[in-house]
Specification:
globular, about 650 residues, seven-stranded parallel beta sheet
Length: about 650
């Protein structure tokens, strides 16, 4: 099957030697070296049969359930936060590198219907999808690693399942039966999984891709095995395995092997496997999170207790970049183990992940540094701005710089804050090569963000404002350049004399969940000469949104007369989407109402982030941009 391609100027570079250890990852399991041929032979085609990937997929489907789907389930034990999402994404990268189309599902056992109302301090960022789904941040990892576009149904929560079952019960669909967790909840979970797994998977950056039927669906079960809220999902997966046959589901468990007094302890891992077995499952692969590579004796000990061969015990130790995890798993023959267990023929030379190997070599060879200061309000954990930090890294790699991020608490810049904290925050902004003001909700820290916008404008610092950051840049300009003293957003001051930012009726002020302006929307660019049009190489842009308030159209003429140009609007011409400072002496000052970070990909960085990073590196933001950096606009190719 032909793979969807990215048509951008530097998207998906290929080339370089195909050496597993050239990206800094050494072969981990010598004992597994001799397995590859036997594994491939175990599932090889009949004598004289074709050996191409397309034929292999057809043969694999002949041993699959009716819809031709294979499932890889990734769960975790001992503790949360071990990296199940990165592990699942990395396994999916290997499977995609084998020529198979991969779909992904994230199961979150919490009772919330979605992640839209959850605190970024507690849960990290809310990742918004093309269809407006507000989901767990792991779906962002899936999209970035695989360059795919997922939908809100790819994120299953307990709230969604119970809501669906209760609605069916109210409609009388259960014929008067007693509705129970087993079988009604578990059946609903299984049906949901099979339905979503069978849907076409679309490219994340190629608008011409209409989607491809998946061959494998990777499912990540959030939380920890043994949690009360996870039990219905474990049972549903067990029932699904029974329904489709054991040869069609592969179970990966991520467990912890802590280093205590310089000794790798296996007991947490043993207990995790025991807990999983009590639920009726046995793992096919253990991914052991550890600080350093698993010792051979430790690998054998875990394998003995888990009743797995040593080569099925995978060392997932710390690496310098998360993008090296697929290489780490490849070096331990994970793709071969999965293919053999699922009876899927693995063509010779697969998996092919040369793009990742080239990326990791480039990351290792970056020497020049670039510093970007993020002026935020959720700085206690970087997960609150995960997509922004990843998009910055994507942009930094594209301009051959090693990224350094410094964090500024927006509240520290405000009047009345501790002088030491304020001076430190100002020093960070002064030392930074560029500034970024991200989105957020609530009035805490907004005046500090406004001061940061003023600093970037006055000191000629490259600046990118996103969502609320764009709105506050407009507020700052209205106050300082247009004489609108006390100008503000109605979100923070309902009685302001100069409502520069107002509530635009598309959502609800009272019902919080799923009521904002969400998902991919089109922005029309007014001029081909604006910064944004040059970066995207198009006269319109399709990006994802998540907001309730927008720039007041009534103040736009006065702001533009003073040099703040609104170069991008929605298709009605009423919603201001992109603003640029018309100052030839300023290297880069752009604000976007949408969230460009949500469509940035490791192999295909966001154009606005590339522009910020180029300007911050002292480069021309438009230099060598032969074509749009990413084809995210939705226009059909005429070539």
């Amino acid at each position: 099957r032909e793979q969807p391609v990215c048509r951008g100027a530097r998207c998906n570079p290929r080339g370089g030697a195909d050496g597993r250890d050239q990206a800094g990852v050494q072969k981990q399991n010598p004992a597994a070296d001799g397995m590859s041929s036997s594994k491939r032979n175990a599932s090889s085609p009949p004598q004289g049969g074709p050996s191409d990937a397309g034929s292999a997929i057809k043969r694999a489907r002949s041993r699959s359930p009716p819809n031709g789907m294979k499932y890889v389930v990734v769960c975790g034990g001992t503790a949360s936060g071990l990296g199940k999402g990165i592990t699942a994404s990395s396994i999916a990268v290997l499977l995609k590198g084998c020529g198979w189309q991969v779909n992904m599902i994230k199961i979150d056992p919490y009772l919330n219907v979605d992640a839209g109302t959850m605190s970024p301090f507690e849960h990290g960022e809310t990742f918004v999808l093309d269809d407006g789904g507000e989901t767990d941040l792991d779906l962002g990892n899936y999209e970035r690693f695989l360059n795919i576009s997922l939908g809100k149904d790819n994120n299953i929560t307990t709230g969604k399942i119970y809501q669906q079952v209760i609605q069916r019960e109210r409609a009388g669909e259960y014929l008067g039966k007693t509705v129970q967790v087993v079988p009604h909840i578990t059946t609903a979970i299984g049906d949901w999984i099979e339905d979503v797994a069978s849907r076409p998977v679309k490219s994340g950056t190629n608008p011409d891709d209409e989607g491809h039927e998946a061959d494998v669906c990777v499912i990540e079960l959030g939380g920890t095995v043994g949690d009360i809220e996870s039990m219905p999902f474990i049972e549903a997966l067990r029932q699904l395995q029974y329904k489709i046959g054991r040869d069609n589901m592969f179970l990966v468990m991520v467990c912890l092997v802590p280093l205590i007094s310089d000794e790798q302890k296996t007991k947490p891992c043993q207990h995790s496997v025991k807990e999983l077995r009590s639920a009726g499952f046995s793992p096919d692969l253990l991914c052991c999170r550890c600080e350093v590579e698993l010792l051979p004796d430790v690998r054998k000990k875990i394998g003995m207790f888990a009743q797995l061969k040593p080569e099925q015990i995978i060392s997932v130790h710390n690496v310098s970049e998360i993008y090296k995890v697929p290489l780490l798993l490849k070096s331990q023959d994970v793709a071969e183990i999965v293919a053999n267990r699922l009876k899927m023929y693995l063509p010779k030379g697969m998996p092919d992940i040369r793009d990742w190997e080239q990326l990791c070599r480039k990351l290792d060879n970056l020497e020049k540094k670039i510093n970007i200061a993020i002026i935020g309000k959720y700085n206690m954990g970087t997960d609150a701005y995960l997509s922004i930090t990843k998009a910055l890294q994507h942009g930094a790699v594209s301009v051959n710089r090693k990224l350094e991020i410094t964090w500024v608490n927006a509240s520290s810049l405000e009047e009345g804050s501790d002088k030491k904290d304020r001076d430190e925050a100002m020093a960070i902004m002064n030392a930074a090569d560029g500034l970024l003001v991200p989105g957020g909700f609530g009035d805490r820290g907004t005046e500090g963000k406004i001061l940061a916008c003023a600093y970037a404008r006055e000191k000629k610092k490259p600046f990118l404002g996103i969502c609320l950051g764009m709105q506050l840049a407009v507020v700052e300009y209205a106050r300082s350049q247009c004489g609108m003293a006390g100008a503000n957003s109605e979100e923070f001051d309902k009685n302001t004399k100069h409502p520069v930012v107002i509530f635009m009726p598309e959502g609800s002020k009272t019902v919080m969940g799923g009521t904002m302006r969400l998902g991919t929307r089109r922005t029309i660019l007014k001029s081909k000469d604006c910064v944004t049009a040059k970066l995207y190489g198009e006269d319109f842009v399709d990006e994802r949104h998540r907001h309730r308030y927008e720039v007041n159209p009534k103040v736009v003429p006065e702001l533009e007369a003073k040099g703040l140009k609104f170069v991008g609007m929605d298709e009605t011409g009423e919603r201001m989407e992109i603003v640029e400072l018309q100052d030839p002496s300023h290297p880069f000052f752009v604000g976007a109402q949408f969230h460009p970070e949500l469509k940035s990909r490791v192999m295909c960085p966001s154009p606005l982030f590339v522009g910020l990073l180029r300007a911050s590196a002292g480069q021309n933001p438009f230099e060598e941009l032969e074509m749009p950096q990413t084809p995210r606009k939705g226009r059909r190719s005429t070539g």
